[in-house]
UniProtKB/TrEMBL annotation:
Residues 2-40 form the Sin domain. GO terms for molecular function: protein dimerization activity. It comes from the Bacteria. GO terms for biological process: regulation of DNA-templated transcription. This is Antagonist of SinR. Coiled coil: none annotated.
Length: 42
């Protein structure tokens, strides 16, 4: 997880926390990217 965290050093700390929590809950990076690209439900 530390490696992932260092990639986010230029982001808002709250965004980093949300992304890290999502990853810990088992949400994939691809799912996070899709949501950020289109946050409205499909």
């Amino acid at each position: 997880m530390e490696m992932i965290h260092t990639q986010f050093t230029n982001l808002d700390p709250e965004w980093v926390e949300l992304i890290m929590e999502a990853l810990e809950l088992g949400i994939s990076e691809e799912e996070i990217k899709k949501f950020l690209a289109n946050p409205t439900p499909c």
